[in-house]
Fold this protein.
Amino acid sequence: MNTVELLRTLVGFDTTSHRSNLGLIHWVADYLAAHGVEARLIPSDDGQKANLLATLGPDVAGGIVLSGHTDVVPVDGQAWDSDPFTLVEREGRWHGRGAADMKGFIAACLAAVPSWRSLELRRPIHLALSYDEEVGCFGVPRLIAAMRADMPTPALAVIGEPTQMRVGLAHRGFFGHRITFSGRPVHSGDPALGVSAIEPAVQLIAQLARFGRTLRAQGNRTTFNVGCIHGGTAINIVPGCCEVTWEFRPTDAASTAQVTQELARLLAGVSPEVAVELTPLAGVPALCAPEGEGGAVDTLRRWGALWPPGEIPFGTEAGFFQQAGIPSLVCGPGAIAQAHQPNEWIAASELRAADRLLACVGAWASGV
């Protein structure tokens, strides 16, 4: 099967994050088995989803990880011109949910398997497919833990998110929280008898905004956003509950620690009459650019990745691999501008470029 045929099959699985991805995962495992490659499944706690890890070549250090997530975002409320889960070609573009983000890359990897199997590989090629990336990167930590426990350390991980085949050196992280303030509701005729939950929530939001401005003044590009506020029940009741959902996007681990420490300090200053509950919603580490432009970056350039490399404006699973001690870059077919959109598409030329890069991966792994 070629890349387009494989992409058609992958798009046909509705792997929206609130659904199971097991249909796709088992199909990929069977496909690999048909080519003599054994796949290991790493299930979620409830068994409804699974990561997949497979290795071609010798069980030695210094290989390459080709990583992609299998889940896609919903199509609800979007105006599609065709069935989102049926791949359709129009004017050199392949349309379907996940075509760009990021089943196109996975399809190209699977299409390369027969060629890789025909080579005498001296370095391993690891295929790593995850679940629940779109809702917080919940699957990949378990996948990486299995890798670290059972296989020698790879030399490089390439996360094939849609960058139009340009090398992504770095991106900010993403950390989301829900903070619930609980006060004491009373009739507003005598508000002193109650404890407002909204007031400390508003104070915290203002304090976070000031902290964000301080960081920017110091040249730190970490950003903050309060996405939702829900509180109170009526104008004449002192609000007994207020919920704030917010996120910050740090540039590196030091910024993550700095914000986390400041948040703890601010919450410690809330009146003891107000109960505060902090619930982490997502924690995606930043990807930090490697020193200089040698090593893995130059390797991808030789394989045909586009130049110049740079920072990408969206988060990926690459930071998790980097934290695990695996040098990591982002490079894959398709444009992020098409991701999550109605009539999502990937250009046929992008798929061909991915095919060429993955052929170079095989040559590298075989020592050519």
Observations:
- The CA atoms of residues 64 and 125 lie 5 Å apart.
- The mean pLDDT is 96.
- Residues 198-217 form the longest helix (20 residues).
- The two ends are 25 Å apart (CA to CA).
